[in-house]
């Protein structure tokens, strides 16, 4: 019976090690790990359903969603649902799962490893209560029968332990090793995902044909580095977009659907030069950094002259597609124009309708038209406030003209403000640049999971016992029984085959007797 002192001592230890031990055991239990894994999967659902910020493949997705859902979007933003994978609650769930899996899997792996190396235990006292029980008598020495049984079981891949009267054998340890590999792969997968989120990065860059991208942070249109990633330690290389080849379905139910989407590039890295073709799902790999082709569009080439007749701008300007027919819109800013700055809002129609219209009929450059609205005044670029290259601050601008241009045509601005000429159309490509240092670890984890799960499902772990007892009138009695350690039953006929091989040492002294399982 416990004394009052002992009870008080137990109560006194509860707030310290007692509660700490209980919390650790609860956190590292398999039930908690499964619950956290399910919670993480549920937490990832908004990241798959809702658009996410800092996604290189579609950087304007959140902006469009906010414009389409002006009442709902602010509430979703307050809950961090537009940045799910970088939100504190998602990171907290992930870290709890990592700790839980570590405390759950490592001891379990150690236990499974010990079990896989343990010798088979001796059989129960009553073998006749086991599965596939057989009994037979032989005129042979006990040692000879045991040696024969040991040789047969070893030949069939069993691990055995022997005594003077019994052989205990076990087979199917690969199942436990498969369980070990399966559980360990989950932890390795989490580590690989953590490595990608802590050490990798993802960026976005748009290149017009002929332009060159150098892998430095200032060259990116958008760059999302990981928490422990140093932006000054990017892999040094440069890539030039030579040409972008596209083709579209000209007719049929999927008219306008892309059929060809090839970016021909040249690159330089660490003194090595080469060329490559980047296609969807066929990225360019430069020393572990991959460039994926994520989108394309058109960049109208224009020449702008100011009121003095000087060429103040002559280049291709990227316009962003707004529909499947690549109707694209963008802005042109000319802060160096005199006597006043110039700005243009434009819509490019790759195939303009012959009877007029504001949307393109087809994504190919069959009949390009550039619709422009001209502004003059102060662009606001000297105020020191960052501006998007795709929007025009019209608070200090006045519209001065509107016109639709075909290639080669010029729009003359009123009051001698200048002119703009539509010189042609170039193509541009969107590239997603990513470095994922944890992908190799994740690949190893995936292979480990596949091998471990396959072994644990296919391999049958089972035990066999052969007990040899001397009879008073000479000879021996052989008892053979087996037991399955999985839900699957013992292989049909295995016990009969084992007994037949064991009893070949001499003629049988009596008929074989079988007891019910």
From TrEMBL:
InterPro entries: Cyt_c_bgen_Ccs1/CcsB/ResB, ResB-like_domain
Membrane topology type: Multi-pass membrane protein
Subcellular location: Membrane
Origin superkingdom: Bacteria
Domain ResB-like per the UniProt entry, residue ranges: 30-487
Residue intervals passing through the bilayer: 89-107, 180-199, 441-459
Main location: membrane
Record keywords, A-Z: Cytochrome c-type biogenesis, Membrane, Transmembrane, Transmembrane helix
One matching Pfam family: ResB
Keyword set includes Glycosyltransferase: no
Protein name: Cytochrome c biosynthesis protein
């Amino acid at each position: 019976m416990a004394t009052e002192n002992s009870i008080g001592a137990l109560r006194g230890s509860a707030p310290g090690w007692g509660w700490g031990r209980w919390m650790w055991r609860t956190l590292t239990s398999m039930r908690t790990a499964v619950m956290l894994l399910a919670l993480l999967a549920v937490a990832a659902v908004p990241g798959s359903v809702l658009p996410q910020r800092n996604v290189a493949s579609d950087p304007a997705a959140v902006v469009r969603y906010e414009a389409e859902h002006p009442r709902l979007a602010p509430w979703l933003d307050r809950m961090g649902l537009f940045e799910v994978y970088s939100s504190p609650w998602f990171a907290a769930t992930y870290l709890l799962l990592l700790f839980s899996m570590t405390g759950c899997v490592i001891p379990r792996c150690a236990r499974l490893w010990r079990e896989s190396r343990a010798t088979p235990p001796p059989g129960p006292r009553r073998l006749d209560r086991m599965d596939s029980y057989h009994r037979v008598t032989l005129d042979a020495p006990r040692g000879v029968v045991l040696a024969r049984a040991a040789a047969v079981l070893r030949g069939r891949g069993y691990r055995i332990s022997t005594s003077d009267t019994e052989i205990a054998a076990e087979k199917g340890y690969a199942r436990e090793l498969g369980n070990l590999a399966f559980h360990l792969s989950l932890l390795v997968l989490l580590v690989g995902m953590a490595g990608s989120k802590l050490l990798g990065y993802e960026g976005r860059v748009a290149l017009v044909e002929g332009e060159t991208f150098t892998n430095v942070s200032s060259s990116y249109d958008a760059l999302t580095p990981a928490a422990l990633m140093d932006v000054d330690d990017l892999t040094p290389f440069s890539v030039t977009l030579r040409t972008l080849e596209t083709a579209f379905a000209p007719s049929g139910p999927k008219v306008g659907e892309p059929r060809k989407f090839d970016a021909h590039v040249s690159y330089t890295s660490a003194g090595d030069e080469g060329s490559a073709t980047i296609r969807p799902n066929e990225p360019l790999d430069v020393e572990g950094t991959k460039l994926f082709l994520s989108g394309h569009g058109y960049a109208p080439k224009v020449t702008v002259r100011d009121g003095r007749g000087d060429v103040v701008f002559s280049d291709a300007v990227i316009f962003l597609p707004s529909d499947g027919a690549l109707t694209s819109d963008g802005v042109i800013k000319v802060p160096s124009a005199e006597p006043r700055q110039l700005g243009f809002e434009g819509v490019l129609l790759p195939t303009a309708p012959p009877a007029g219209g504001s949307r393109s009929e087809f994504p190919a450059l069959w009949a390009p038209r550039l619709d422009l609205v001209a502004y003059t005044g102060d662009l606001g670029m000297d105020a020191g406030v960052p501006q998007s290259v795709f929007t025009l601050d019209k608070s200090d601008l006045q519209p001065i003209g509107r016109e639709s241009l075909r290639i080669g045509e010029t729009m003359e601005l009123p009051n001698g403000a200048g002119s703009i000429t539509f010189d042609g159309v170039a193509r541009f490509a969107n590239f997603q640049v990513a470095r994922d240092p944890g992908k190799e670890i994740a690949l190893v984890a995936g292979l480990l999971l596949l091998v471990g799960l396959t072994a644990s499902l296919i391999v049958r772990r089972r035990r066999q016992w052969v007990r040899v007892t001397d009879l008073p009138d000479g000879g021996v009695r052989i008892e053979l029984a087996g037991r399955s350690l999985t839900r699957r039953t013992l292989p049909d006929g295995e016990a009969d085959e084992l007994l037949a091989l064991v009893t070949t040492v001499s003629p049988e002294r009596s008929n074989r007797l079988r007891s019910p399982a």
